[in-house]
UniProtKB/TrEMBL annotation:
This protein's record includes keyword Signal: yes
Coiled coil spans: none
Domain Leucine-rich repeat-containing N-terminal plant-type: 26-64
Recorded family membership: Belongs to the polygalacturonase-inhibiting protein family.
Entry-linked SUPFAM superfamilies: L domain-like (SSF52058)
InterPro entries assigned to the protein according to its UniProt record, in alphabetical order: Leu-rich_rpt, LRR_dom_sf, LRR_N_plant-typ, PGIP
Stated name of the protein: Leucine-rich repeat-containing N-terminal plant-type domain-containing protein
Localization (cell): Cell envelope
Taxon lineage: Eukaryota, Viridiplantae, Streptophyta, Embryophyta, Tracheophyta
Annotated source species: Eutrema salsugineum (Saltwater cress)
Main location, first listed in the record: other
Amino acid sequence: MKLLLRLSIFFSLLFISLPSSYGCTSNDKNALLQIKKSLNNPHLLSSWNPRTDCCTSWTGVECTNSRVTALTISSGEISGQIPNQIGDLIDLRTLDFSYLTHLTGNIPRTITKLKNLDLLRLKQNNLSGPIPEYISELKNVTFLDLSFNQFTGPIPGSFSQMPKLQAIQINDNKLTGSVPNSFGSFVGNVPNLYLFNNKLSGKIPESLSKYDFNAVDLSGNGFIGDGSMFFGRNKTTVRVDLSRNMFQFDLSKVKFARSIVSLDLSKNRIFGKFPRELSKLRLEHFNVSYNRLCGKIPRGGLLQTFEPSAFSHNLCLCGTPLKAC
């Protein structure tokens, strides 16, 4: 009797101590096997064996309470398109298909079934076509990374309707058009904005001036007009890169947040005198070269620690580290 009691206690404790990821459901397992088949049974997914448990031994699969909650497939010989069956993993919180240079096509609409998705990273693949508006149906996504692909067409204005979005990374694509006016009315937190190295153009909506972005990178596009709406003395912005555009505004009238540590305004049409306020910033990266600035570079702070190339090719800037005035 005592032996039976001890065995009962032992197995009870064993059951309690088993990880919550033990034993994935048949629905999730079947969906994963269909995904593997759609991707032409790549060697990278050789551990996806139907005779084993997908929650404990399958590459890139993570589970919580026996449901697949994270799927990460990266840096391997994967060919084909994102399978429609991805939408059958309805408890996914993380979907990361990255560094798969032979992954082509667009993002399937079935992805909108993933109502719990928090992170969507489809970085550095060979995806193409327009970025679908229906991505905005993923209301719990906080981090969206579609960078380094071949996406074309405009930025979906519906991104502004994603209430939990904290970062938009759609840089290094072939996107065209302007920043949507709807970006002036985000329903949730204002996201970090990474749009660099596309083919975007036009003016930035003035309504973005009310936002306190943490980081903005619009470099390597064809934007025109006033780009100074990202600055403000009372903001907490850390990084701003507007380089390699055609922005045109008076730098002497800009008020800078004391929090800025990285500022690149190079290769634009920015004019005016060099503001003394810049000497008060704790800058780690700085570049205003190839603009139309004039006047003396103020001494003090960290400005004199940067190379002359950070100030070169302006109309009439002078003073250390350039030639004396």
